[in-house]
Amino acid sequence: MIDDPAAAGVSLDPVRARLLAALTAPGSATTLAAEVGLSRQKVNYHLRALERHGLIELVEERRKGNVTERIVQATAASYVISPAALSAVAPDPGRAPDQLSARWLLALAARLVREVGELIKRSTKAGQRLATFAIDGEVRFASAADRAAFAEELGATVNRLVAKYHDEKAAGGRHHRLIVALHPSITRPADDEPAPDHPAPGPATSTEE
After folding, report:
1. Mean pLDDT throughout 82-88?
2. Which of 7, 36, 40, 179 is 20 to 30 A (C-alpha) from 106?
3. What pTM value is reported for the model?
4. Phi and psi for 176 in degrees, rounded to 5?
5. Domain regions of the chain by residue span
6. Which class is domain 5-74?
């Protein structure tokens, strides 16, 4: 999870992004130069920037004659840029909440990425497993009316579950955030059937500790 603006900028550079992708396995400036089509000196320049921001790390040093070859590797298999990297302009779900607003849904998703990313960092540091749960699926509605009815019934069901299990005064209890989302699935050009007037939404629920 990248939450530092400078590190985010470094990772978004096309050349450096290619180097990060290549460094899921250990490599050196020499081996990477051939892969990305740049001189070893230019690759070294980019590697220093990545290492300075904690995106890659030194694995070992190999002595070859009068030259020491530095073997480096990415610090993660994949990266996500947290909305915290743009905190001044990050979407705020507390501003004008609207269950039918796509922008509000996007703000909720941004908060989800930010908070879960922080929780992952904390749990990793503490050596503890992070308790999370998520559901991802798709449902095809025959009509917009069916979609609206589904959303209403889903909301009522979730509210009943929350009322059943929420205990504000439980000793040792811990709050969890619950998000339930419904949005149209993206129609791919390769789909056999034409895009419907109302694309089939895909529901998703997520809770994080």
Report:
1. 84
2. 7
3. 0.69
4. -125, 145
5. 5-74, 89-208
6. mainly alpha
